[in-house]
Specification:
By secondary structure, the chain is an alpha+beta fold. It contains ten helices and 24 strands. The longest helix has 18 residues, at 95-112. It is globular, with a radius of gyration of 24 Å.
């Protein structure tokens, strides 16, 4: 098939196609003489004129030249940067079509990867808000031209934005404040003198309106100095000589700096730059039921502020017993609530900052049956002293669970497993392994944590058959 495609199609060729459905990664699928064409930004039932852009490993990719006949599911995008910005890829679909496409993406993965003959009933939970739902996001800033925003689709070029419709009002305010700081005259001075100095901002704004930042200073000896936290006005942020030129890391004014930004209110937000690494980011507080949870821009936390509690509820409801293990636990989003229904909870997290916050959250909520462990999933599982475990909660990165980890989890024979995933393909792979090991799916939920994009969050609850 690969050779046939290569011989008959080449980049630049134009095709008239009708889109059948949306595939994993959000591509529209069409077929031309039995050949599958993948088209981004397409809608089911679109009739399109497309141009072939790439043929790779037997797959043909194309871009839309023109819409011959628009799908009934196609709508005008809400964002003026759409089709250029790489952040969203579903704004051209009406919301019911977005949800249906995500369900079909999941079903495709369960059939094709997990090899499930009998599909479970899948609950789809829409987001209460379709726009202005994100409380955290990454933005990029390049000093040489003061460009600030998101990357273009399929590019590392920055789309300079002044407003993001999927970011919350509070997060947009944080973006504007960060841009103002970074494009101030003092920051421009810094960018011109980066061969001799650097000062990286983290932190955010406190409730009094003052801006608090941590400044990470490199000592002249080349070591890392103590992080000092000050309350300072943006105009007072000036360049400091931090180390001799031969001690400065590879750092270029034309290479973007990535900032993670999080916001809980217009007066409370947090920044964190990826290079050089900050020592601190301002802590934010949110409520999960009866619990207060601390997080910051430095660590992972669920982005959709309207669905996080529902996600936690679907992942933890009816779980109970003596001992539970939360692997990839973050700041304790799932394990903190489970302290009410288990005698002891072990929360395992590789990221040191997240594990530290998990301990702080346990202390803040006066929990004595919570143990936070800073270790990789693999290191923990290989050194875990075997004992009877009633439940395991798994919330891995997009790549899913390492083979050795899932094998050891299966050997524990926990009665209950709750698997939280943001990637349908790795979820399907791992669920297939658990089913083959003797587990049944009892509940399957898709939560639309990311409206206007093809991304989705899933919670799969499994029970041991014997």
């Amino acid at each position: 098939m690969s050779s046939n495609i290569s011989e008959s199609l080449k980049p630049g060729d134009q095709l008239e196609i009708t889109v059948e459905k949306i595939a994993p990664r959000g591509f529209g699928i069409a077929r031309v003489e039995g050949r599958v064409i993948f088209i981004p930004m397409a809608a089911p039932l679109d009739r399109l004129l497309v141009k072939v852009t790439e043929i790779k490993s037997g797959l043909c990719f194309a871009e839309i030249d023109s819409v011959i006949e628009a799908s009934p599911f196609r709508v005008a995008p809400h964002c003026r940067y759409y089709n250029v910005c790489g952040g969203c890829d579903f704004q051209h679909l009406d919301y019911p079509a977005q949800l249906q496409s995500k369900l079909e993406i999941m079903i495709d993965c369960l059939k094709r990867i997990a090899k499930l003959d009998a599909l479970p009933e899948i609950e789809v939970v829409p987001s209460p808000e379709k726009f202005n739902y994100r409380r955290r996001a990454q933005v990029h800033f390049r000093q040489i031209d003061s460009s600030f925003g998101f990357y273009k689709r399929n590019s590392r070029e920055i789309v300079d934005i002044d407003y993001c419709p999927v970011a919350s009002k509070e997060l947009n305010s944080a973006f504007n404040e960060l841009r103002r700081i970074l494009t101030s005259e003092e920051s421009k001075f810094r960018s011109k003198n980066f061969d001799k100095s650097r000062s990286i901002l983290s932190g955010g704004q406190n409730v009094s309106g003052n801006k608090t930042f941590s400044i990470n200073r490199d000592l002249s000896e080349g070591g890392i100095g103590d992080s000092t936290e000050q309350t300072i006005e943006p105009q007072e942020i000036i360049a400091e000589r931090l180390s001799p030129p031969d001690k400065v890391e590879n750092f270029s004014a034309d290479k973007p700096i990535n900032y993670m930004v999080a916001a809980e209110s217009e007066n409370e937000f947090s920044f964190f730059a990826d290079r050089p690494k900050n020592k601190k980011a301002k802590l934010l507080s949110t409520k999960l039921g009866e619990f207060e949870i601390l997080y910051s821009a430095e660590v992972f936390f669920q982005a959709n502020k309207y669905l996080t509690e529902t996600l936690v509820e679907r992942a933890t409801q009816s779980l109970s017993g003596d001992i539970a293990i939360d692997i990839y636990s973050g700041v304790g989003t799932f394990s903190i609530p489970l302290t009410r229904t288990f005698r002891k909870i072990f929360a395992v997290e590789e990221n040191a900052a997240s594990a530290r916050l998990a301990r702080m959250n346990a202390k803040r909520n006066k929990l004595e049956n919570f143990v936070a462990i800073n270790a990789t999933a693999k290191d923990f599982i290989l050194n875990f002293k075997q004992c009877e475990v009633d439940a395991v909660i798994l919330d891995p990165p997009r790549s899913g669970i390492e083979n050795v980890v899932i094998e050891k989890v299966i050997q524990m024979h926990p009665r209950q497993i709750s698997y939280v995933s943001c990637e349908p393909s790795s979820l399907a792979r791992d669920i297939g392994k658990l089913i083959n090991a003797g587990y049944d799916i009892t509940h399957f939920t898709i939560l639309d944590m990311f409206p206007q994009t093809h991304h989705l969050e899933s919670v799969v609850r499994l029970a041991l058959k014997w």
